[in-house]
């Protein structure tokens, strides 16, 4: 075994909420100094133009906007407002109907849904080449391209970002997403979600929201949007005037926000006001109804001239692009013809009509209303020029087509995964630390009750790096008593670790956790000291025994492989923990709840596969030495383990326990005798000392 190491444990960083760089508490959450955020406070639209742009530099822009506008007929000017949905999962060839609408009717943009990065890039090229006026290309990528594109990078959800208490992580995420989008020829991301999730049983927002605090949402929403817009991608705050308190899914029916005006101003509108004051480029209006100072009750805000014109444009002074939510959603499409929905949205004040249907009829219907005087021609000019101005600044007079060659490789960069893992680790929230970290796993008989689907970087495989355990079933047959079965199955074990994930986003479905699972988990807490690890929505904590009844409660805000990977390490002190609940879960767990693991006490792992990352290429010489030793018969097998500041950044195993194919292969969990360990225990410290003395 060859061990390369750095002196000491700890990576030199205290958890987010234990660090001296904090700038204060916001609604129970400690927010750290935003070191990575730019100092300028305005970055986007102000009165219809991008702020900070010198007046003399607008001449070329104005000339292009005017020339394109004048060259378009009425129907072409209206068509600039239409953004069509496209799927790239079926290949790189463009959709024939969409291509026809681009060529013949001059629609203004495309929004991509499920597919792959290579297919999306190829389709982008085809659509842009067919367009007379460059197209605005968009994606709904709240947590990255991976939300829509199978091989795109994904990051933790918004609630995980807020749990870190570090807005600079949201800013960096926005920067990276913008870089990836520009590589694909995309210009608009329909993010961030700045809804204040005040209803724990919200059927559509949940962990997509940063918090149930308007101030926290405003802080993180601004940082995320700022990172994208300064990276050349237009951000879109949604879902105005706030989708966080609803109890109805607008994909199926129209929610009604029954809030007093002062509450709406103080809670839901606050993040939108904050982003407007800093120049957010686009605002998506949600399909939900409010009673705003006598405006038409029961009418969706996306179709309501009072909300869009009086509230958003006049009272809040917003000068950027206004986009409807998808017009094919049930909240506005039920009982109405698609062309009528598009007409109502355009007439109400939406600049961009998202996912319209029956596009040809809708364009004709809006043009007819303009010619009849129902829609002023000045409104058409203002909207069309606002869109053209955005195109000039995001694209230029001629579209810059993405290079399809090597696009998948370009988007598979180590720093993207590294940031996702950094956010995941910093978001981990420990709510009871009675037995966490587990100090002496060698003295425990550990039972693992897992409701997770394991992966290579899964929870259970990572536990094995720290301790042996026995897998115990947590399923109950019909008629079985949870208390009896828990006591029986845990048997001689002294500690139980229970891992459960929310497999459904709907609170009405108990987030996918069955009643039998709840009963067995709570029974485990009564039978033995039990550590509960919840992957997903923290609102699911309400189904379990209060945290103080467990020996430990750890929340990870998703079930991604890297979340499982770091959660397992946290239980044994392999990484620091400093996250805080960004939402309240009943009275027992107020917003801001959480405890710290100040310093790691055992080796941690940066990634599950520490042998294949590009940054480890400089250590391949060690691989060669081990392989040469095995080939020459010096040893039958071995392991290379490289550690820096308590973090394993390289680990690879070679050969077998003994000479011959009958011996087991060496793995990461291989145990060595004392004679094998002395070879490294004696030499490595001497090598490290020599390096420090620069010898």
From TrEMBL:
It catalyses: Hydrolysis of terminal non-reducing N-acetyl-D-hexosamine residues in N-acetyl-beta-D-hexosaminides. GO terms for molecular function: beta-N-acetylhexosaminidase activity. This is beta-N-acetylhexosaminidase. Pfam families: Glyco_hydro_3. One of its GO terms (biological process) is carbohydrate metabolic process. Residues 76-389 form the Glycoside hydrolase family 3 N-terminal domain. Belongs to the glycosyl hydrolase 3 family. Keywords: Glycosidase, Hydrolase. PANTHER family: BETA-HEXOSAMINIDASE (PTHR30480:SF13), BETA-HEXOSAMINIDASE-RELATED (PTHR30480). Its EC number is 3.2.1.52. The keyword tRNA-binding does not apply.
């Amino acid at each position: 075994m060859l061990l390369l190491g750095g002196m000491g444990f700890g990576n030199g960083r205290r958890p987010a909420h234990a660090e001296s760089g904090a700038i204060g508490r916001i609604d129970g959450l400690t927010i750290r100094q935003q070191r990575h955020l730019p100092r300028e406070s305005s970055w986007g639209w102000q009165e219809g133009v991008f702020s900070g742009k010198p007046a003399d530099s607008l001449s070329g822009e104005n000339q292009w906007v005017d020339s394109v506008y004048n060259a378009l007929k009425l129907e072409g000017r209206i068509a600039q407002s239409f953004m069509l949905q496209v799927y790239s999962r079926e290949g790189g060839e463009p959709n024939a109907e969409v291509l026809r609408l681009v060529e013949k009717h001059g629609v203004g943009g495309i929004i991509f849904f499920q597919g792959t990065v290579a297919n999306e890039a190829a389709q982008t090229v085809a659509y842009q080449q067919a367009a007379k006026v460059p197209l605005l290309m968009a994606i709904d990528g709240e947590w990255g391209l991976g939300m829509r594109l199978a091989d795109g990078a994904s990051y933790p959800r918004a609630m995980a970002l807020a749990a870190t208490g570090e807005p600079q992580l949201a800013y960096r995420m926005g920067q990276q997403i913008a870089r990836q989008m520009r590589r694909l020829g995309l210009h608009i991301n329909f993010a961030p979600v700045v809804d204040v999730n005040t209803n724990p049983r919200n059927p559509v927002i949940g962990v997509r929201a940063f918090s149930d605090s308007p101030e926290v949402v405003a802080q993180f929403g601004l940082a995320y949007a700022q990172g994208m817009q300064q990276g050349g991608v237009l951000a879109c705050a949604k879902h105005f005037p706030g989708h966080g308190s609803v109890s109805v899914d607008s994909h199926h029916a129209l929610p009604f926000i029954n809030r007093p005006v002062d509450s709406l101003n103080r809670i839901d509108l606050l993040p939108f006001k904050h982003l407007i004051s800093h120049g957010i480029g686009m605002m998506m209006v949600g399909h939900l109804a409010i009673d705003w100072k006598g405006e038409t009750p029961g009418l969706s805000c996306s179709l309501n001239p009072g909300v869009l014109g009086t509230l958003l444009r006049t009272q809040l002074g917003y000068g950027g692009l206004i986009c409807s939510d998808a017009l094919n959603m049930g909240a506005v499409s039920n009982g109405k013809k698609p062309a009528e929905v598009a007409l109502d949205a355009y007439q109400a004040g939406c600049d961009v009509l998202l996912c319209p249907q029956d596009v040809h009829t809708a364009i004709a219907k809006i043009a007819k209303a303009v010619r009849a005087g129902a829609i002023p021609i000045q409104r058409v000019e203002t909207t069309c020029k606002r869109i053209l101005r955005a195109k000039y600044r995001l694209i230029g007079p001629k579209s810059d087509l993405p290079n399809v060659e090597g696009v998948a490789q370009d988007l598979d960069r180590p720093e993207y995964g590294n940031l996702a893992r950094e956010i995941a680790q910093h978001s981990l929230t420990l709510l009871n630390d009675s037995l966490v970290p587990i100090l002496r796993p060698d003295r425990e008989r550990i039972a693992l009750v897992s409701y997770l689907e394991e992966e290579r970087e899964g929870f259970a495989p990572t536990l094995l790096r720290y301790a042996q355990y026995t897998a115990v079933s947590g399923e109950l047959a019909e008629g079985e008593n949870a208390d009896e079965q828990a006591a029986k199955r845990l048997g001689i074990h002294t500690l139980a670790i229970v891992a459960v994930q929310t497999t459904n986003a709907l609170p009405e479905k108990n987030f996918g956790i069955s009643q039998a699972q709840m009963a067995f988990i709570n029974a485990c807490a009564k039978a033995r000291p039990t550590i509960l690890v919840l992957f997903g929505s923290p609102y699911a904590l309400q189904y379990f025994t209060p945290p103080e009844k467990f020996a430990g409660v750890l929340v990870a805000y998703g079930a991604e492989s890297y979340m499982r990977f770091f959660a397992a390490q946290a239980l044994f002190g392999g990484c620091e923990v400093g996250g805080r609940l960004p939402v309240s879960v009943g009275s027992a767990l107020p917003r801001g709840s959480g405890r710290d693991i100040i310093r790691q006490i055992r080796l941690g792992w940066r990634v599950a596969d520490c042998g294949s990352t590009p940054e480890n290429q400089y250590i391949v010489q060690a691989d060669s030495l081990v392989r040469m030793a095995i080939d020459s018969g010096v040893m039958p097998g071995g392991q290379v383990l490289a550690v820096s500041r308590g973090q394993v950044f390289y680990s690879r195993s070679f050969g077998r326990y003994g000479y011959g194919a009958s011996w087991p292969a060496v793995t990461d969990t291989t145990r060595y005798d004392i004679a094998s360990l002395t070879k490294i225990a004696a030499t490595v410290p001497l090598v490290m000392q020599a390096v420090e003395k620069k010898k």
